[in-house]
């Protein structure tokens, strides 16, 4: 990179971050997500943090339609990763939960992904790993804040 690291412009950092994200996708692709697709994996991640949501809420979170989301959940239920249970107040409403097998899959997937990353990070000098860790922690905090603010704004307009 030809620019100075002392005062990188946001667009330059965005470009390098985007490149890093693409490389992460390649590394993570090697740590296969089989037997689930990328869309199904998103469902698992959402259910991990919002267990017991209904299909409509899940569809909204995915930016999808309830029928498409239902088909995703059908396939996840068929491999034993998702369970549908009747709601507490309405027996007609189904709530979605990760199964024990679904949780085990996510633990294993994360472990494989971390091993792939660790292999790359071992080639970096310790000082650069420290700087990366500090930068990523700040990035995660800023991204979480922005996502949270967007959620609040969405709730106000709903």
Automatic annotation (TrEMBL):
InterPro entries: HTH_MarR-typ, MarR/SlyA-like, WH-like_DNA-bd_sf, WH_DNA-bd_sf. GO terms for molecular function: DNA binding. Keywords: DNA-binding. This is DNA-binding MarR family transcriptional regulator. Pfam families: MarR (PF01047). PANTHER family: REGULATORY PROTEIN MARR, TRANSCRIPTIONAL REGULATOR, MARR FAMILY. It comes from the Bacteria. The keyword DNA-binding applies. Gene3D superfamilies: Winged helix-like DNA-binding domain superfamily/Winged helix DNA-binding domain (1.10.10.10). Residues 10-141 form the HTH marR-type domain. It comes from Streptomyces umbrinus. The keyword Mitochondrion does not apply.
């Amino acid at each position: 990179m030809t620019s100075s690291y002392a005062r990188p412009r946001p667009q330059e950092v965005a470009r390098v971050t985007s490149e890093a994200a693409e490389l992460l996708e390649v590394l993570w692709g090697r740590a296969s997500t089989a037997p689930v697709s990328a869309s199904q994996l998103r469902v698992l991640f959402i259910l991990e943090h919002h267990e017991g949501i209904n299909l409509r809420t899940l569809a909204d979170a995915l930016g999808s339609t309830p029928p498409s989301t239902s088909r995703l959940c059908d396939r996840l239920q068929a491999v034993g990763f998702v369970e549908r249970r009747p709601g507490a107040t309405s027996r007609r409403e189904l709530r979605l939960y990760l199964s024990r097998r679904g949780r085990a899959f996510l633990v294993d997937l994360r472990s494989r992904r971390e091993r792939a990353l660790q292999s790359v990070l071992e080639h970096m000098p310790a000082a650069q790993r420290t700087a990366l860790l500090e930068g990523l922690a700040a990035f995660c905090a800023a991204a979480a804040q922005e996502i949270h603010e967007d959620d609040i704004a969405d709730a106000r307009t709903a």
